[in-house]
Amino acid sequence: MTRQLLRDGRIVVDDWRYAGESDGNAAAGLIFTFDRWQTERDAWPARGARVGVVLLPAHPVEALVPDLPRLSLIAAEFPGPSEGRGYSQARLLRERWKFRGELRATGYVHRDQLFFLARCGFNSFELPEDEFEFAQAALSTFSKAYQPSNDAGLPVKLQPL
Amino acid sequence: MYRYDVVDKTLVRERVAQFRDQTRRFLAGQLSDDEFRHLRLRNGLYIQRHAPMLRVAIPYGLLSSTQLRALGGIARRYDRGYGHFTTRQNIQYNWPKLEDVPDILAELAEVEMHAIQTSGNCIRNTTSDHLAGVSPDELEDPRPWCELIRQWSTFHPEFTYLPRKFKIAVTGAARDRAASQVHDVGVHLVHGAAGELGFEILAGGGLGRTPVIGQVVREFLPREHLLTYLEAILRVYNLEGRRDNLQKARIKILLRSLGIDEFRRRVEAEWESTRAGGPRVDDAHIERLRACFAPPAYRRLADGEPATGQETEFQAWYRYNTSAHKVPGYRAVFVSLKQPDVAPGDITDAQMELLADLAERYSFGEVRVTHTQNLLLADVEQQQAHELWRALREAGLATPNIGTLTDMICCPGLDFCSLANAGSIDVAKLINDRFADYDYLYDLGEIDIKISGCMNACGHHHVGHIGILGVDKSGEEWYQITIGGAAGNDASLGRVIGPSVPKAEVPETIARLIEVYVEQRQPEERFLDTVRRLGVQPFKQRVYDAPVAA
What we know:
The complex is a heterodimer of chains A (161) and B (550).
Chain A: E1 4-7, E2 10-13, E3 16-18, E4 29-32, H1 34-40, E5 51-55, E6 73-78, H2 85-96, E7 102-107, H3 111-119, E8 124-125, H4 132-138
Parallel strand pairs in A: 3-4, 4-5, 5-6, 6-7, 7-8
Antiparallel strand pairs in A: 1-2, 1-8
Helix pairs in contact in A: 3-4
Chain B: H1 6-27, H2 33-40, E1 45-47, E2 52-56, E3 62-64, H3 65-78, E4 82-85, E5 91-93, H4 101-110, E6 127-128, H5 143-153, E7 168-171, E8 185-191, E9 197-203, E10 215-222, H6 226-240, H7 251-258, H8 260-274, H9 283-292, H10 312-321, E11 322-324, E12 330-335, E13 346-348, H11 349-362, E14 366-369, E15 375-381, H12 385-394, E16 409-410, H13 425-434, H14 438-444, E17 449-452, E18 466-473, E19 476-483, E20 495-496, E21 501-502, H15 506-520, H16 527-534, H17 537-545
Parallel strand pairs in B: 6-7, 7-8, 16-17, 17-18
Antiparallel strand pairs in B: 1-2, 2-5, 3-14, 4-5, 4-13, 8-9, 9-10, 11-12, 12-15, 14-15, 18-19, 19-20, 19-21
Helix pairs in contact in B: 1-2, 1-4, 3-11, 5-9, 6-8, 7-8, 13-15, 15-17
């Protein structure tokens, strides 16, 4: 199966698969559930392939911190339109723990959330098929911001320390 | 006051465009009711009993005459000729059409206003002391800090989908006129040991289903850390607040379950780790904000006694509807929105326009909204008070009842709100009918009655000296009465006097409570203090011992 993504502002074909998803692409990176990762983590580095983890809203980001150097992707899940913990998780991963890999928003993710998700540090988005044509524009819903966050290039009114 | 710069203007315009598109998609069937609900609620738009209700933000209650005039025009052209001021210093329109809302927002943007974050689970409009900058008991003007918080909290990317709504109140005076102890966060301007400005930070206060008085998280926060500290509180709440049960999702429940010590430990730990990269309080920015709230060009005047020799009605109005000003020769003038025949907080389009004119003539073109649902002209020359009073009286805006029993806080209730269990406005009307004698009201002194039509407590009934809560009893409207609540420095939650009473018996019940007070009070003792001294028992006994004659 192929899945489209908005990644770094461009629509691309996903080169990752979730563990359990059937896929012919052997080169695809593998995304584990959080629990599965806990059992796989010690065995993994030997195999040398790219690996990612799904982070649910209730998971503490700190549990992944020792593994960040070997994780290429973290996919934060948004189970519904009112879930907001992923925004804080993303900022913690990017700003405090300096995670530089792909930070993906999955689950209930629509154009109306993209601008704020991106400001918190997400750089890739799994979207419903009919949202892609509007998604790029949604990333520039606002041309300015008040508060510093994890984004580059946006003029910010209140300067960071 | 603060005027928009290019950043504010751009953001508000871009928000109008975004919301116009969201409304269009909903009307075209591309967004479900539930999906649109999550979007419109971030913009103050509720679907209510009769029509949508649009809540417009009035940051810390401050309006220019131009803005008030625009609000009046919107009331006339898009609503039924009136608006309703709320306990959060905002204004609500009860009858706009959904498809008109984007145009209303565009008109608001023209006068530097919006409806951003006036509802939904996000940081709401920051509220403050309506006497900010003019009250003699003020330590520092809170408005520059309110404006700083407004900017920081507007479109904060991390905190737009909180577990529940989040309300911040800021006050800088000895007397707390902003009910800061019943907010999610209360910010008190204080001076440190060396006289430097800082903040006392409270958290976990709130009304609603589970009323709680806020607790001190930090006694003294140096001023440069205000925003990073707020960010730490919000992050702990966003990550750890309950999301499984709406009734338990406010920060007060988190604080209670962790205990203040553990809550404080988590906030401080979060703050230590993140404050280095957070938004700083830039001295130059603060100075610019301070300049926005610099005192107007007061004339050099002496204090006088303008009521002397005037008609008694004016004397009463001057005594009750004006308050002390720190500049000699000036008074702060309350515009009572508690006319006996009008729903508390309601105002017509023509009244708004008239007030805009009066503000320009008598009070440097500014008007404030109080959390008690009145308006205020903050800087009126004492010698012009009589002229102003005549104009206000003509327009039905000079009811001389500020601080008295009929200056009631009242939610929209069953007449408008889809959450309500019972009417509020008609109860206020019944109480007004019963207590129509001003001499009696003045003799009773300061009594706060607060009425909510349901547990959500928009009418703040828990902190009323007398609180009235509407409950549904097999389809009938009944009312639970509490006494002994207060929202100021001595904040406390009222205690229930006994079983609820039917609507028609509310005025008699209030009258009996007042009777006990009149019989038992000591010289100069307020109703609230008599209740605190005697406890609920004698009041309860009087209300329930003899049946109310129908």
